[in-house]
Design brief:
This protein is α+β, with helices and mostly antiparallel strands and about 130 residues long. The chain contains four helices and five strands; from the N terminus they run E-E-H-E-E-H-H-E-H. The protein has a five-stranded antiparallel sheet, with helices on both faces. Helix 1 runs antiparallel to helix 3.
């Protein structure tokens, strides 16, 4: 299941070199999937409205207990501010005991085009 790219408020005037963040998140067991999905949807909704957000998408493989997030930001400060925000911080704290694995990759993109899942997979693999 992949939710479509949802543009954020900064998408109207994207920078020449946006910052892209990809995450791979795996929970310990199937019993954690519903709660993780609920939290992920809350965080995605907040990210869509966050200052500096260019857009966000979420991919889920519930039976594999794995979720991926791909987002684009006007700059690192906007991304960092969102990561420290209440909604994101509360979700991280609540979900920490359920997590089996997480990997993150952040990079400066070439141009303002929507980031792709192929590049996100390559970057996540390289970050491990």
């Amino acid at each position: 299941m992949t939710l479509p790219w949802a543009p954020g408020p900064a998408a109207q005037q994207p920078p020449a070199r946006p910052v892209v963040m990809a995450a791979e998140l795996k929970v310990r067991g199937l019993r954690h999937v519903p709660g993780f999905l609920r939290q992920s949807l809350k965080v995605r909704g907040r990210a869509r409205r966050a200052p500096g957000a260019l857009g966000v998408t979420l991919r889920a493989a519930p039976l594999e207990r794995t979720f991926w997030v791909l987002s684009s930001w006007s700059d690192r400060e906007a991304l960092d501010a969102f990561v420290r925000s209440g909604t994101h911080r509360r979700a991280m704290t609540a979900l920490r005991p359920a997590m089996e694995h997480s990997a993150f990759a952040t990079w400066d993109a070439e141009g303002a085009a929507e980031p792709g899942w192929d590049e996100a997979r390559r970057r996540l693999a390289a970050s491990r």
